[in-house]
Design brief:
alpha+beta, 60s Ribosomal Protein L30, Chain: A, RutC-like_sf, YjgF/YER057c/UK114, single chain, 2 helices, four-stranded mixed sheet, globular
Length: 135
């Protein structure tokens, strides 16, 4: 296994992600920020949960294209517009909706959620980047 995930004692307990990832592979895969656009050009979902789910599908597609999967991910960075703690339920609903489909481990790899004022298109509510390490 090229990635070992852990949450050392004393770090925030019961987080939906691991705090530490150690990658031992020699090939790194970087996935650019993915949003909820679809390959068929259909409109992106208007809700946060729907956008998170589709963005995660797009991250999974990018990982596969780089010869990786979520088991190889050492870091996720998530940008959410107008973030406030009350949005965590919708955010996590989007994650839960696709976790099995995309092979996202539970808890997730180390993740950072950053609130931003806006993203590059007004209807885009979330953008997700990933870094993976594979042999």
């Amino acid at each position: 296994m090229t990635v070992t995930l852990s949450s050392p004692e004393g770090m925030l307990p019961n987080a939906p992600y691991h705090h530490v990832a150690v990658g031992t592979g020699s090939r790194h895969v970087y996935i650019a920020g993915q949003v909820a656009h679809t390959d068929d050009g259909s409109p992106i979902p208007a809700d946060l949960a729907g956008q998170v789910a589709q963005a995660m599908r797009n991250v999974a597609r990018g990982l596969r294209g780089g010869g990786a999967d979520f088991g190889d991910v050492v870091r996720l960075t998530v940008y959410v517009t107008d973030w406030r703690p009350a949005k965590i339920g919708d955010f996590m609903a989007g994650i839960a909706a696709v976790a099995d489909e995309v092979g996202l481990p539970t808890p997730m790899p180390p993740a950072t959620l950053i609130g931003v004022q806006a993203l590059y298109e007004p209807e885009v509510l979330v953008e997700i980047e990933a870094t993976a390490v594979v042999n």
